[in-house]
Amino acid sequence: MHSPIRNWLIWVNSNIILELGSVTMNEKRLGVLLRIATNMLDKAPVDDNIVRIEILSNLRRNVWKEYFNIYSEDLPF
Questions:
Q1: E strand or H helix at 5, and its extent?
Q2: Alpha-carbon distance 17 to 12, whole Å?
Q3: What is the spatial distance between Cα 25 and Cα 14, in angstroms, rounded to a whole number?
């Protein structure tokens, strides 16, 4: 079960999701990582373009939301 989508998910999990709260993560780096993930998924064989668009849309929305939630937790107000 080593499909290209599985490899993509492993890469996204280890390079984006698990690194969201790290000290070295900033908005510029996160944007670059999301663009890399987009390019990787574009090269993977997905049967339906709508599915690809939904996957990327959900990934971007959820990652940015979580990123801003993590960094707004420390605000004093």
A1: helix 4-12
A2: 7
A3: 13
Amino acid 24 reads T
Could you tell me if 63 and 34 are in contact, meaning their C-beta atoms sit under 8 angstroms apart?
A: yes
Residue 63: pLDDT above 50? yes
pLDDT in tens, 44-60: 887 788 988 999 999 99
CA 28 to CA 9: how far, in whole Å? 21
* CA–CA distance, 64 with 62 (Å, rounded to integer): 6
Report how far residue 44's alpha carbon sits from residue 23's, in angstroms, rounded to the nearest whole number: 31
How many residues does the structure list for the chain?
77
Residue 34 CB burial class (10 angstroms; 0-12, 13-18, ≥19): middle
Residue with tokens 């990582």: 33
